Automatic annotation (TrEMBL):
The keyword Ligase applies. GO terms for molecular function: ATP binding; biotin carboxylase activity; metal ion binding. This is biotin carboxylase. Coiled coil: none annotated. Keywords: ATP-binding, Biotin, Ligase, Nucleotide-binding. Its EC number is 6.3.4.14. Residues 120-318 form the ATP-grasp domain. The keyword Nucleotide-binding applies.
């Protein structure tokens, strides 16, 4: 097993990784920006090293500074968490070329899945269902119109190099496509350094369902369970559930089989997620993208399987066997995760500030993965996620009841927060029915 680990991230995911590493007897090294010096993850690591100012490009995305910290601290391995450098193939290669262990998938797999057009073509060749769309980038508006005409309106205009719900727009006709194409292309060039645009069919009513996979050290790819991620704002997730209320045994079998095919097609190792769109009217699902890292919502999979996915990542990176029997992986109960963000609960606009009050709920079946505490400050430099409130119950109704109580018992003062939105959602008839889709939040507003 790895003996020392540098965590190349911040906030709640850094604390989450450190917690498991400590349990396994692994020495931890935190890197942090000047703005994050007082956050809990810095104090909880065995060693902490400042890698630059608040600007992520000069700290958490500063490859040279992070590698220098790994060398000076004597760290043996690097865990990237999610975001920042977690899906940067060049960083993964740099880690390994410096003699360190990369706690993540092979760099070639990251590269293969990082471009949405290349990814969908690879998946189609492997027999994984993909939505009707362009096999090549639409390099001009004319090419986009030609592709949309063949696919049929409405279409989704997507940044090929995008991720996290960014760089996407819907076009219902040629005029809208002309306008949205230029916006998406310019955004993609600015944000990702790649203006390539993909045209795909848009499904007005769809559910977002994903499957957790693990590429084991012995070469096998194992699919765990599915997660429902349809409660979204601006194409970004707010709530996740496991299992999905839309997925029965036969559909689950097809989902898991497709996820294994996807992982095997790129020689996947370590933790990853195969994201799909599900048409609830037909039961058809289509590959959306593969996230080549640990997901924000991994705790709900942990709870229904009784696993620690960070431990499994470390086992795989160390060349060890899994801590569970892949041939006898059972699930039980129901888990829900709520992303507690520093944003107003109506328009979901960021609202950073100093945390005056921070009281986390507790009780059976309640887990809080947090990045902040009273006296710390949520700055405007990073993602607005403050904590993840995760509940586990005997069934979905029990989990929802626990979520209601936990939301009511979570006290935050200082930064804005979206707890009132969750209180509303957990009483919403559409959500309670389990028959909802990615448009649920817009219908609530």
């Amino acid at each position: 097993m790895i003996e020392s680990l540098l965590v190349a991230n911040r906030g709640e995911i850094a604390r989450r990784i450190i917690r498991t590493a400590r349990r396994l007897g692994i020495r931890t090294v935190a890197v942090h920006s000047e703005a994050d010096a007082d956050l809990p993850f810095v104090a909880e690591a065995d060693e902490a090293i400042c890698v630059g100012p608040a600007n992520p490009a000069q700290s958490y995305r500063n490859t040279e500074a992070i590698l220098a910290a790994a060398k000076s601290s004597g760290a043996q391995a690097v865990h990237p968490g999610y975001g920042f450098l977690s899906e940067n193939a060049d960083f993964a290669r740099a880690v390994e070329s410096n003699g360190l262990v990369w706690v993540g998938p092979p760099a070639d797999a990251i590269t293969a899945m990082g471009d949405k057009i290349n990814a969908r073509n690879l998946m189609a060749a492997a027999g994984v269902p993909v939505a009707p769309g362009s096999a090549d980038p639409a390099g001009t508006v004319a090419a986009a119109i030609e592709a949309a005409t063949a696919i049929g309106y409405p279409v989704m205009v997507k940044a090929a190099a995008g991720g996290g719900g960014m760089g996407m727009a819907v076009a219902s006709d040629e005029a809208a496509l002309t306008s949205e194409y230029e916006k998406v292309r310019a955004f993609a060039e600015r944000m990702f350094g790649d203006g390539s645009v993909l045209i795909e069919r848009y499904f007005p009513r769809v559910r977002h369902v994903e499957v957790q996979i693990l590429g084991l050290a012995d070469g096998r790819v194992v699919a765990l369970s599915e997660r429902e991620c349809s409660v979204q704002r601006r194409n970004q997730k707010l709530v996740e559930e496991a299992p999905s209320s839309a997925v029965g045994p036969e559909l689950r079998r097809r989902f898991l089989a497709a996820a294994v095919q996807a992982g095997e097609a790129v020689g996947y190792r370590n933790a990853g997620t195969v994201e799909c769109l599900l048409d609830p009217a037909t039961g058809e699902f289509f590959f959306l993208e593969m996230n080549t890292r640990l997901q924000v919502e991994h705790p709900i999979t942990e709870l229904i399987h009784g696993l620690d996915l960070v431990e499994e990542q470390l086992r795989i990176a160390s060349g060890e066997a899994p801590g569970f029997d892949p041939g006898n992986l059972a699930t039980s109960g129901h888990a829900i995760e709520l992303r507690i963000n520093a944003e107003d609960p109506k328009r979901f606009l960021p609202g950073p500030g100093k945390v005056a009050t921070w009281v986390e709920p507790a009780g059976e079946g309640v887990r809080v993965d947090s990045g902040y505490a009273a006296g710390t400050t949520v700055t405007p430099f990073y993602d607005s996620l403050m904590a993840k409130l995760i509940v586990f119950g005997a069934d979905r109704d029990d989990a929802i009841a626990k979520a209601r109580a936990a939301v009511a018992g979570f006290e935050i003062a200082g930064p804005k927060n979206n707890l009132p939105f969750f209180a509303e959602l957990l009483e919403n008839a559409e959500f309670l029915s389990g028959d909802y889709d990615t448009g649920i939040v817009s219908r609530m507003r």
